[in-house]
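Input record, target 12 of the design panel.
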C-alpha cells in the first residue's frame, strides 16, 4: 500500500486524521508544527511523540523528501536557483531572491506546463504532472534549511500554471499562511496566471488576500493570441473583467506582467494600446525584458529602448516598473535549468 502524503494534510485535516487513529487532537497540532514550522524530514525528529506513535506514522505516512540536484548562485546579485528532484525522479526549479525587505522564493506549481506561451522554456515539453501541496511547500522549507535563512515572501511564478492546478494551489496558500506553519502573510504572496478566467473568478471568492498577477504580454486580443495560446480560449475583455472583479472582491490591486519582446510588442503603438487598456485601472505594470530561450528565438529590446517604453507609459499615467533582472547568469528564465540538466544528464 502506498504511504499517504502527510505534508499535504491541512491543519484541520491532520487533527481529524490523528483523531481517526484514536489519538488526542493536540497530537495533530504537534505533528503539524513539526512538519510545517520546523520542516522536519523524518518522524524520528518528533521527539515529543511516543516511539509507538512515531512507528505507526512511519508505517502509514511519508514525508517525501526532495534531493537537491543542483544549486547555482548568481555572482551578480546573490540570487540562487535550485533544481530539486522529486520522489518519482521528476525535477522542478525554485529560485531564492534576497531583497532589502526580506527573502522571497519563486515556487513551481507543476512539472512542465501545458499553456504553450511562445517565449517560455517551461512549456516546451508540455505538462508532466501537477505538484501536490506538499511539493510546493517543501521547495520553501528546503531552501530555508539549506541556506539557514528565513523566507518572508513567496511568488508563485516558477514553472507551471497555478490556476491549472487549482485545488492544490489554493490549499498550498492556506497552509503557507497558516499560523501553525510558516505563517507567511498572504499579503506577501503573489501568484501569477496566464489568465484562466473561470478559475480567476473562483479565486476572487476564496477570501484570500494574495496579490494576483496577470500575464498580459499583449495589449490587444490579436497580440495576445500571437504569444499565448490561452488567448484562444479566453478573450482579453473577459480576462480584464476577471481582474477587475478580483480587485473589487478582494481590494487587492492587480499586477500586470508584460514580457518585452523586441520587434513583437515594444512599439509606440503598443505603448498607446497599453495605456488605453490600463490607464483607467488602479494597477501596477511590470515590464520583463524577455529572457532569451534558445529554442524560442525571441530577443529582448536593448535597455535604452526598454527604458523609453517605460518612460512613455509613465508619462501617460501608468504605474510601471521594469523588473530588475535577477540571476541572468544562472539560467534565470523558468524551466531553463531543468532543460539544461535533462540535456546534459549530469550534476551541474
Ligand atoms: N503560469 C504563470 C506563471 C509563469 S512564470 C503565468 O503564466 O503567469 C511568471 C512570468 O514570467 C509570466 O508572466 C511568464 O509569462 C513570464 N515568462 C516566462 N518565460 C519568460 C521568459 N523567457 N522571459 C520573460 N518572461 C517570461
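The sequence produced for target 12 reads:
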Amino acid at each position: 500500500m502506498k504511504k499517504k502524503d502527510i505534508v499535504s494534510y491541512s491543519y484541520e485535516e491532520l487533527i481529524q486524521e490523528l483523531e481517526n487513529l484514536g489519538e488526542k487532537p493536540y497530537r495533530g497540532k504537534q505533528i503539524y508544527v513539526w512538519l510545517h514550522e520546523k520542516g522536519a524530514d523524518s518522524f524520528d525528529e518528533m521527539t515529543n511523540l511516543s516511539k509507538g506513535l512515531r512507528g505507526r506514522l512511519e508505517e502509514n505516512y511519508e514525508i517525501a523528501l526532495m534531493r537537491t540536484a543542483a544549486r547555482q548562485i548568481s555572482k551578480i546579485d546573490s540570487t540562487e536557483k535550485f533544481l530539486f528532484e522529486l520522489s518519482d525522479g521528476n525535477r522542478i526549479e525554485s529560485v531564492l531572491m534576497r531583497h532589502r525587505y526580506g527573502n522571497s522564493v519563486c515556487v513551481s506549481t507543476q512539472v512542465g506546463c501545458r499553456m504553450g506561451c511562445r517565449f517560455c522554456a517551461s512549456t516546451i515539453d508540455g505538462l508532466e504532472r501537477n505538484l501536490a501541496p506538499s511539493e510546493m511547500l517543501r521547495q520553501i522549507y528546503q531552501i530555508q534549511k539549506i541556506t539557514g535563512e528565513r523566507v518572508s515572501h513567496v511568488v508563485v511564478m516558477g514553472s507551471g500554471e497555478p490556476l491549472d492546478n487549482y485545488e492544490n494551489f489554493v490549499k498550498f496558500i492556506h497552509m503557507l499562511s497558516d499560523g501553525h506553519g510558516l505563517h507567511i502573510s498572504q499579503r506577501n504572496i503573489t501568484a501569477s496566471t496566464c489568465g484562466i478566467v473561470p478559475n480567476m473568478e473562483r479565486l476572487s471568492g476564496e477570501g484570500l488576500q494574495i496579490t494576483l498577477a496577470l500575464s498580459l504580454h499583449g495589449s490587444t486580443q490579436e497580440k495576445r493570441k500571437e504569444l499565448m495560446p490561452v488567448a484562444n480560449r479566453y478573450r482579453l475583455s473577459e480576462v480584464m473583467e476577471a481582474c477587475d472583479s478580483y480587485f473589487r472582491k478582494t481590494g487587492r490591486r492587480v499586477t500586470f506582467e508584460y514580457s518585452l519582446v523586441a520587434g513583437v510588442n515594444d512599439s509606440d503603438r503598443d505603448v498607446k494600446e497599453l495605456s488605453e487598456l490600463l490607464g483607467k485601472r488602479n494597477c501596477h505594470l511590470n515590464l520583463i525584458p524577455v529572457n532569451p530561450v534558445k529554442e524560442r528565438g525571441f530577443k529582448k529590446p536593448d535597455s535604452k529602448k526598454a527604458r523609453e517604453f517605460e518612460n512613455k507609459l509613465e508619462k501617460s499615467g501608468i504605474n510601471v516598473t521594469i523588473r530588475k533582472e535577477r540571476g541572468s547568469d544562472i539560467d534565470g528564465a523558468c524551466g531553463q535549468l531543468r532543460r539544461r540538466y535533462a540535456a546534459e544528464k549530469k550534476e551541474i
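The pocket of S-adenosyl-L-homocysteine is lined by residues 115, 117, 119-120, 157, 161, 192-194, 215, 257, 259, 288, 290-291, 293, 333-334 (CB under 6 Å).
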